[in-house]
Design goal:
This protein is mostly helical and 147 residues long. 74% of the residues lie in helices and 0% in strands. α2 packs parallel to α3. The C terminus is likely disordered.
Length: 147
Amino acid sequence: QLQTSFDTLETKNKVFEAVIQDIVQVSHGLAEGNLRVTPQAEYKGELLKIKGALVAALYNQRMVIEDIVQLSQGLAEAKGQNQAKIKYKGDFVQVKNALEVAGNKLLAASKKNAIQDWFKTVTKYQSGPSILVMARNSSSCVFSITI
């Protein structure tokens, strides 16, 4: 009976060791910036909750990073798409809010620059009294443009 108890403890110890090693491996992967690292050990019983939480955390971080990349690319290409595609939770909500505020400000600045560039281009080819006439005639138009 003592041997059976010892064997049971030894088996559980091996399972715990494997799970701990797996968590360490995933943690090292994250520390190196690898969000595609996945748990490899066989989790059983209550330890399945740990694996589920670990997989969910990895997935959520990966989705946030992918969302940031897509939002950044959209802003760089002036596509105007600055809304997050995933639902952010916890502290990641701050990331989403900051991205959306930055995106809105950048988009507004891009629109303003487009109007100013248009006006600079027009003024480059106009001079003297004709520019004053054009400015008076187009000023109401310029400020009513919706982009």
